[in-house]
From TrEMBL:
PROSITE patterns: TAT. This is exo-alpha-sialidase. The keyword Signal applies. Belongs to the glycosyl hydrolase 33 family. Its EC number is 3.2.1.18. The keyword Iron-sulfur does not apply. The lineage of its organism: Bacteria, Bacillati, Actinomycetota, Actinomycetes, Micromonosporales. It comes from the Bacteria. It comes from Phytomonospora endophytica. One of its GO terms (molecular function) is exo-alpha-sialidase activity.
Length: 420
């Protein structure tokens, strides 16, 4: 049976999202790339973002928060697709009824379409959008999870998949893939994560999506199949993660640890959980090796491969903090040796802060989930969460659990991180 296709920009439309006049007719223009090679703009606004706030489809106010961005530059084109999770009534995971929102650029991230609805049905929450493109067929895939409402969000989330054959202009209706759902050892449904962010296409043409405790892989001409990855320190599977292909053809997995690893007494070295190899043959690193390399306060990160000055690099973005849940020290790193070391090239995003960055009411505090993509122009694009400060000098708890969240775009030359 043929799947129906959704024309998102026509169906969701400017009017359905409360956009009209100039905002509907003309995409918002990004700033010219700064002389130092870094620019920023708000791509998905929170409820207090003024003209950048995103109206709810119901017309009753604005999305309280937008989180968990995914961004993907389609190879061989100037199209970039960005998807984020709109949270209508609160920033917390349990606030429920989360919808996926999309913006699309046709000039490598310079200008963007208005925000449109991507996935949202009844009171279910849609989350963890993860994009990958098949250069052979031209098909763009988006994996996502459909979670149950509110406090039931961790119970039996289901994997859904939608595809586009026109670079994200139209999409098939999301289809459940029960064969790809994560199950406990006895076969029962259990909590799950996909990505979020992006997958990769390997040199051999296979597609790889990171997911909790596994990789979801599609060989050329085949279907998607789950492949288990090793457990973490606490004997439990890795959580949200990233994947890249090294220049030697091996995969490098970079996963967030689970809460038991983070909060367990003396067991968590505040480092990313990393493995290098291929399904069935993984090389794991010890605690001390990674403690000094990529530290982690317990939050999702981003990782991609990118050519700089004609040489292969891995690029990584996360919070360089060893304080649990301190997500506000966002740092870019580059590895020139396939992820064996990460100490040479490092720059904090605070070196070029957001125009409204600060600790006073109304300011933004950048930090949290991140996503990266490499455009065909050599420019790198990043999505980073940014919390709205509600009172002067807020606590970390206030920022994490009370402040509305937006998603900002960072657009930069590799020379901002690795000198020519």
């Amino acid at each position: 049976m043929a799947l129906s296709r959704r024309t998102l920009f026509a169906a969701a439309g400017a009017a359905a999202l409360g956009l009209s006049g100039v905002a509907a007719a003309f995409p918002r223009q990004a700033f010219a790339l700064d002389p130092d090679g870094m620019e920023s703009k708000m791509l998905f606004g929170d409820a207090r973002a003024g003209g950048a706030a995103i109206p709810k489809p119901s017309g009753s106010g604005f999305y309280h928060s937008v989180r968990m961005g995914a961004i993907f530059a389609i190879p061989g084109s100037s199209v970039v697709v960005a998807i984020a999770q709109g949270r209508p009534d609160g920033v917390a995971d349990e606030s429920g009824n989360h919808n996926l929102l999309m913006r699309r650029s046709t000039d490598s991230g310079l200008t963007w379409s208005p925000v449109t609805g991507f996935a949202g049905a009844t009171l279910y929450s849609w989350a963890n959008s993860t994009l990958v493109h098949d250069r052979t067929t031209g098909r763009l895939y988006c994996f996502m999870l459909r979670r149950q409402p509110g406090s039931l969000q961790d119970e039996d989330p289901k994997v859904y998949l939608t595809t586009s054959d026109d670079n994200g202009a139209t999409w098939t209706d999301p289809v459940v893939r029960n064969d790809l759902n994560r199950r406990s050892g006895d076969g029962r449904p259990t909590n799950d994560f996909i990505g979020p962010g992006n997958g990769i296409q390997r040199a051999d043409g296979s597609l790889v999506i990171p997911a909790k405790g596994r990789l979801i892989i599609k060989e050329p001409g085949g279907d998607w199949v789950g492949h288990r990855v090793p457990n973490g320190l606490a004997g439990l599977p890795y959580g949200e993660g990233t994947v890249a292909e090294r220049s030697d053809g091996q995969l490098i997995l970079n996963y967030r640890a689970l809460n038991r690893e983070i909060k367990g007494a003396g067991t968590y070295p505040h480092a990313r959980r990393v493995a290098i190899g291929n399904p069935g043959d993984w090389r794991m690193f010890g605690d001390e090796y990674w403690r000094a390399q990529i530290i982690d306060p317990g939050c999702h990160a981003a990782q991609i491969s990118h050519s700089i000055n004609g040489a292969p690099y891995l690029i990584h973005l996360n919070s360089a903090s060893q304080t649990l849940d301190n997500r506000y020290a966002m740092t870019l790193r580059a590895s020139p040796d396939d992820g064996e070391t990460w100490t040479e090239y490092r720059e904090a995003l605070s070196e070029d802060p957001l125009s409204s960055e600060g600790n006073l009411a109304g300011n933004l505090r950048e930090g949290g989930y991140a996503a990266l993509t490499s455009t065909g122009t050599g420019i790198i694009l990043a999505l980073v969460e940014a919390r709205r400060v509600l009172k002067d000098h807020p606590s970390q708890y206030d920022l994490n659990y009370r402040s509305p969240c937006a998603v900002v775009l960072r657009r930069f030359r590799p020379s901002w991180l690795v000198p020519a």
